[in-house]
Amino acid sequence: MTTKPFDDFRTLLATLPPADAAAETRVRTLFARADKPKASLGRIEDVAAWL
After folding, report:
1. Considering the domain boundaries, does residue 28 fall inside one?
2. CA dist., res. 19 & res. 38, Å (int)
3. pLDDT score, position 37
4. How far apart are CA 33 and CA 14, in angstroms?
């Protein structure tokens, strides 16, 4: 049996559910309301909204 490196990871990525635009909007709204400087968390805010 031969498999390419990361085949299981590729399979997992291929079966991810579609993005949830409503959830992304909710997350970005919560970050905007948080008592912190705008975009102070940097890329983490984008990653959290993406997830």
Report:
1. yes
2. 24
3. 85
4. 34
Please name the amino acid found at residue 23: A
- pTM for this predicted structure: 0.61
Per residue in 1-51, pLDDT (tens digit) is 567 888 999 999 999 988 899 999 999 999 989 888 887 888 998 888 988
Quote the number of domains for the chain: 1
Tokens describing residue 41? 């968390």
Determine the 3-state secondary structure of 15 from DSSP.
Answer: coil
Q: State the Cα–Cα distance between residues 4 and 20, nearest whole angstrom.
A: 31
* Domain span holding position 29: 19-50
